[in-house]
Amino acid sequence: MSKGFNVDEWRETCKEISQSAVSKCGCIHDVYVGLYSCEIESHAGCFPEEHHEQAFDIAKQEGDYYTPKERAAEAQWNAEHGYCSHGLDQDCCPCGCGDLEEYR
After folding, report:
1. What is the pLDDT along the chain (104 residues), one digit of tens a residue?
2. Of 10, 35, 41, residue with least CA distance to 23
3. Cα 58 to chain center, whole Å?
4. Which DSSP string do the residues of 19-66 spell out, in sequence order?
5. Residues 6+ apart with CB under 8 A from 31
6. Residues 16, 58: contact at Cβ < 8 Å?
7. What is the CB-side half-sphere exposure of residue 74 using CA atoms within 13 A?
8. Rounded to the nearest 5°, which phi and psi values hold at 11?
9. Are 38 and 86 in contact (CB under 8 A)?
10. Phi and psi for 8 in degrees, rounded to 5?
11. Please, are residues 3 and 46 in contact by the beta-carbon 8 Å criterion?
12. How far apart are the first and last CA of the chain?
C-alpha cells in the first residue's frame, strides 16, 4: 500500500485483514479483536497523520477495531471478572489458560 490514502483501497485492505484475523482467531472474539486491531494499527501507521482518524473509522465499519485503550479496558474487565486473556472462562479456554497458576 502506498503512503497516500485511498478510501476504497483501505476499505478492501480492512476486509482482507478481517478475513485473515477470522481464520486465525479460533472463533474467539477477543483474539479476533487483538489480531485485527493490531494489524490495522500497523497498516494505518503508514498513512499521513491527517488520515488516521478516517482510517480507524473505516476499520471499525469493516471489522471489530478496538483502540489500544479499549483493548486494555476489555482486558482489565476480563481480569476483574475471572476471565482469561482470551475473554473466556479460564476453565473453558482451548489455549489452556485454566492450567496456568495465575488463574488458580
Report:
1. 445 799 999 999 999 999 999 999 988 899 999 999 999 999 999 999 999 999 999 999 999 999 999 999 999 999 899 888 888 887 788 777 776 566 55
2. 35
3. 14
4. HHHHHHSTT-HHHHHHHHHHHHHHHHTTS-GGGHHHHHHHHHHHS---
5. 24, 25, 86, 87
6. no
7. 16
8. -60, -45
9. no
10. -65, -40
11. yes
12. 46
Grid coordinates given for 15: 476486509
Under a CB-based contact definition with an 8 Å cutoff, are residues 14 and 8 in contact? Answer: no
Total residue length of the chain = 104
C-alpha cell of residue 77: 474487565
- Encode burial over 60-92: b for 16+ CB neighbours within 10 A, e otherwise: eebbebbeeeebeebeeebeeeebbbbbbebee
Long-range contacts of 40-45 (CB under 8 A, 24+ apart): 40/14, 40/65, 41/68, 43/1, 43/13, 43/17
